[in-house]
Amino acid sequence: MSFIELHNVSKKYNVKKPLIYKKLEVLSNISFSIKDGESVALLGPSGSGKTTISKIILGLESPDSGKVIFQSNRKKLCSVIFQNYNSSINPYYKVYEALDEVTNESNNKFDIVYLLRNVGLNSTFLERKCSTLSGGEIQRVCIARAIASGAKFIIFDEAFRSLDLVQIYQILEMLKKIQIQYKLTYFVITHEIKIASYLCNRWIFIRNGQLEGDLAINELKNSNLSSINELKKFYV
Which of 58, 84, 177, 221 has the most CB atoms lying inside 10 A of its own CB? Predict the structure, then answer.
C-alpha cells in the first residue's frame, strides 16, 4: 500500500528580471508513489527540483497543478532532516529537551534513553547541549527526534553532505536497523549514487524538473546497465 502518491505535480516560481516577471518551471508533471517500508532515493543535480518536491510533500509549498495524496491522512506522520541541522533543532537545547519537546505525554525519560541507544548514543548525551555535538551526533539526535514525534515517513534532504565517509557509513547502517525496528519509510534526496546504492531499494531520477527514471534495485540488477549508465552520468 502506498504511503504517499504524487499525481502530475507541476510548479513554477516567479523570477524577477528588469521590468518583467517571468515564470520559471521547476517541476513538470511529476508522478510517483512510495509504499510503506520502502527506501526511495530521489537523485538529481543541483537545481533539478528535488527540494521543491520535498517542500510540496511537507506542505511548505503548494503545487500549481496536480495533487499529493497520503494514505489515510498520514501527512502528520512525516518528518524531515536537513543538511543544516539548526533547521531541525534548537542548538541551545540539551538533548533531553530537544527530544522531550516532541514526545507525547505517554513517553518518559526511560523511553528517550532507549531511543538514544537505538540511534547509537548513550544516556550521557541527555544533558549535553546540541551545539556541543559533532555533525554525526547531532544528526543521530535529529533522527531520534523524528521517531519521538511519531513520524513514520522521514525525508532526508541532502542530510549527509556535511559528514565524512566514516560517519556516513555509520549513519546508514543505523538507519537500516531502525527502519525495521520502527517500521519507517525513507525518502532520500541526494545527488550521491553511493548513498542511494547503500540505503535505498528504489531510485527516482529527476533532471530539469522532469522525471527521467524510476527503477527498483532488482531492475538495476537485471538490467544490462546501458540505460542506467546514461542516467547515472548526470548525478555522480
Answer: 58
